[in-house]
Amino acid sequence: MIPKRHRKPVDDGEFSDPLKNYDIAKAQDELERALCDGVIRDLSISPFCSVSPISTIEQAVRKMAGMNIGCLLVIENDKLVGIFTQRDLLMKVIDNFEAMKGKLIREVMTPDPVVVRDTDSPAKAINLMATGGFRHIPVLDVDDKVVGLLGPRRTTEYLQMHLPTG
Asked: Which of the residues in the chain have pLDDT under 70?
């Protein structure tokens, strides 16, 4: 006998909605509810710092150091075109900083970074950050305008707000 899951469905001509008996899972606790049902715009996603793609590497590095931040969003004509992070600095610049410092940030930035929307769930953002190995992820609105940046500090603060107290 063929196991039920391998049988071909009987086509009796009527459509049967496979989700009609689907029950939406209930959150087990406040943290799970916040991660799955919340939206990113509810997190602390601003302020963020940015540079133009024609900024020099030295200007970007000085800005990062002066503000004690780990990344800069690269914005041109109000559109996100890249991200410049500490990882970019270490992997692409630091070994030859003196020769590289006058070059444009567009030459070493990570172009077209992975982003989330301000209406996405925090769980989606954390999943993308974890699976992609990103510490920071830009947040865009429906019009593709940058509205924030989500990073480890802000993520941790959000998680702590929703952890059960004991």
From this structure: 1-13, 19, 22-25, 27, 166
* Spatial CB neighbours of 39, under 8 Å, sequence gap ≥ 6: 118, 119, 120, 121, 122
Strands in 79-85's sheet, in edge-to-edge order, are 50-51, 71-76, 79-85, 110-111
Closest to 85 measured CA to CA, from 105, 66, 115: 105
For 123-153, what is each residue's pLDDT tens digit? 999 999 999 999 999 999 999 999 999 998 8
Say how far apart CA 66 and CA 72 lie, in whole Å.
Answer: 12
**Structure-block tokens of residue 107:** 């030459």
Residue 53 in contact with residue 74, Cβ under 8 Å? yes
Q: Which residue in 60, 64, 57, 51 sits closest to 101, CA to CA?
A: 57
Phi, psi at 87, each rounded to 5°: -65, -40
**Long-range contacts of range 42-45, CB-CB < 8 Å, 24 or more positions apart?**
42/122, 43/122, 43/148, 43/150, 43/154, 43/155, 43/157, 43/158, 44/154, 44/157, 44/158, 45/118, 45/139, 45/147, 45/148, 45/149, 45/150, 45/154
Encoded amino acid at 120, one letter:
D
